[in-house]
Amino acid sequence: xxxxxxxxxxxxxxxxxxxxxxxxxxxxxxxxxxxxxxxxxxxxxxxxxxxxxxxxxxxxxxxxxxxxxxxxxxxxxxxxxxxxxxxxxxxxxxxxxxxxxxxxxxxxxxxxxxxxxxxxxxxxxxxxxxxxxxxxxxxxxxxxxxxxxxxxxxxxxxxxxxxxxxxxxxxxxxxxxxxxxxxxxxxxxxxxxxxxxxxxxxxxxxxxxxxxxxxxxxxxxxxxxxxxxxxxxxxxxxxxxxxxxxxxxxxxxxxxxxxxxxxxxxxxxxxxxxxxxxxxxxxxxxxxxxxxxxxxxxxxxxxxxxxxxxxxxxxxxxxxxxxxxxxxxxxxxxxxxxxxxxxxxxxxxxxxxxxxxxxxxxxxxxxxxxxxxxxxxxxxxxxxxxxxxxxxxxxxxxxxxxxxxxxxxxxxxxxxxxxxxxxxxxxxxxxxxxxxxxxxxxxxxxxxxxxxxxxxxxxxxxxxxxxxxxxxxxxxxxxxxxxxxxxxxxxxxxxxxxxxxxxx
Length: 504
Ligand code: HEM
Prior knowledge:
This protein is an alpha+beta fold.
């Protein structure tokens, strides 16, 4: 009898809770299952199908969709810019907690307190004016040299047996990691030099992205990691590989750089030290830069290569543009300067188009403000819908970037020319709308990515130097690569052949 009463009571409380939770956002359309549980979205995220599921939800249900009991998906770029704007009262939502690497102080990306976040960004700002170009050049050269050493096939020897395969996905991850190490803390990881996943960083990073994606969707999950028995599963300082190794590495690095009498360097870390950051904040800088700046840039490079390899006219048009500039002396050798690479309109169009079709990551959801009613202001509305306090609003980045209204009726297709055609459209209004919309890949306003200009420089330089020296071919024609669409895209098995075009 007691058991029966307890079960009935439990069911009544549960039903009441579910009813209230459903009712809060019942006026917003979305898949029925998503009104009651986050499981609908979790299933797609866990199986590496996040972006297609967001695109479909936006196409099917409209500009604002309920994709979880307290989670909305917004496909209106203007609303998203307002939400992230400087004067916006939205704050970072619980999804940002999933980005915490340790139980210590949050880093700039996971800091949810707006005042602390602003202060941290302020301290980091000057570090982002450090000249990163020499470091990027070193690693473009290291990438070229690795291909020369191990992977290139001479043009007259294409019948060479066995053919040499190179995992382009892995090498671009090495490139991005080495760049970050060099310009952020003056020590490259040496992945390209050794052609090795040093400390198994990329492997463990890829494995952890699924958990980070899930933790970003289930608000209470990140909090569990500081509780027994989950604490035992966490990486620890002293581990020989992965994030645990990273803790030891960051501690050692910061100690060496802050010890009295340490030789100052000209990297970003030096600027962060000068800004008065605490030891813990400096260590967090090491983590956030590795996390924020390596997968993202390498995904952009990978998907650009895939787009080019599957669209021969664009591949050839880009090659011709680079060759012509090179032949006329407008691209320095052995490494073109950033200013020179910016003069290549077709390269710019290719990079925008690949990023548009395959954004490297999502922007975590923001929390709607809870102050309006207290001040007697109108309630918050998004895309014309009433949005209660404390609702999470996420950006449908992949969906927006395929908008036929903004990008044209063939928005689903890789066609870099769209960025050039519209450049000549009188007022230029259409092209600026397209560029502004593409920018949501980097977030907006006070949440915007701090490394946007660096990412552009890394990828532009890489493509100029690779395309003018080598030709590339897909190995597996039926499945060029394996892609998992998580909060950050994970790419595996992108094997290519590298064939020499010119002597270096
Ligand atoms: C294609 C490459 C990249 C993409 C697509 C990208 C995208 C993003 C996104 C979506 C955010 C979060 C925005 C939000 O909270 O709404 C972010 C934050 C951030 N990114 Fe990037 N990123 C890229 C490369 C980089 C690089 C190379 C660096 C560093 C060198 C970097 C440093 C940061 C930092 C420090 C933040 C935290 C900003 C804050 O919370 O105030 N990113 N990025």
